[in-house]
UniProtKB/TrEMBL annotation:
<feature type="domain" description="Tc1-like transposase DDE">
    <location>
        <begin position="151"/>
        <end position="285"/>
    </location>
</feature>
<dbReference type="InterPro" id="IPR038717">
    <property type="entry name" value="Tc1-like_DDE_dom"/>
</dbReference>
<dbReference type="GO" id="GO:0015074">
    <property type="term" value="P:DNA integration"/>
</dbReference>
<dbReference type="Pfam" id="PF13358">
    <property type="entry name" value="DDE_3"/>
</dbReference>
<dbReference type="GO" id="GO:0003677">
    <property type="term" value="F:DNA binding"/>
</dbReference>
<feature type="domain" description="Transposase Tc1-like">
    <location>
        <begin position="71"/>
        <end position="142"/>
    </location>
</feature>
<dbReference type="InterPro" id="IPR009057">
    <property type="entry name" value="Homeodomain-like_sf"/>
</dbReference>
<dbReference type="InterPro" id="IPR052338">
    <property type="entry name" value="Transposase_5"/>
</dbReference>
<protein>
    <recommendedName>
        <fullName>Transposase</fullName>
    </recommendedName>
</protein>
<dbReference type="Pfam" id="PF01498">
    <property type="entry name" value="HTH_Tnp_Tc3_2"/>
</dbReference>
<dbReference type="InterPro" id="IPR002492">
    <property type="entry name" value="Transposase_Tc1-like"/>
</dbReference>
<dbReference type="InterPro" id="IPR036397">
    <property type="entry name" value="RNaseH_sf"/>
</dbReference>
<dbReference type="GO" id="GO:0006313">
    <property type="term" value="P:DNA transposition"/>
</dbReference>
Amino acid sequence: MPPRRKLNEFERGRAVAWFQDGVPKPRREVARRLHVSISVIVRLIQRFTATGRVQERRRPGRLKKTTPREDRLIERLALQTRTASSSIIRRQLRVPTNTNISQQTIRNRLHGFNLRSRRPAVRPRLTPAHRAARRAFCRRHVRWTRQQWSQVLVSDESRFTLNHNDDRLRVWRRQGERYIDVTVQEKVAFGGGSVMVWGAFSLHHRTPLFHVQGNLTGLRYRDEILRPLAVPTLQQMGPQAVYQDDNARPHRARVVNDFLQQSGVNRMEWPACSPDLNPIENLWMSWIAR
């Protein structure tokens, strides 16, 4: 069970104001707005009714080693550099405040601000030219019908590895901040691996899965994949069939372009660095998850 979120003093004041409004809001509605359980709001209203205060009662135990100002500084340091570890934040805090606290205290303060250490989401590194090409592609096809998309044979290669590099970089983020820029790790395509396969499918057709052994060249792509697998499937789909492949160097070799042109294959223009636009990526991910 995830730890219960605590309301800060400002949020407690808002909750009481909503409850005491001219048209009081139900406690369940106040809890929904503040993303806490209804029991938190019930206890807050009971405490305010009995004491007239929204501050939490003083609890017995050891006093905090940090002041509210130092707590805000810890939060600001984590938000400025999302990849900073608790040990780095501890050293940065010591310079302006001369405060000597443990790394666990740093983590506790960040947890109090609803910041948790999480692995960053990963996305392709896109230049402005890549982004412009992706927008142009989407605008060209935004009005395509289901019938038009059913005529597209999408293809891709994927490498499956038994062992991979476990990136241990972590970032501080709040709920809902998984995909903002400062919490996302960018990376380029990886190298190495164990097994590479090629496949293609459309709405009603699919090719056999082909095991790519060794390096894939333009000649091998033409002779081992396109001629025996892709082109026969496109012919079954009819004259309106469109073939999609990415901009990998073997796919754009001159021998490949000449062969597809001679075979009368309609080829879809594909923006660079756009794996997420290809529906076959969902198929690869479903296999990986097995």
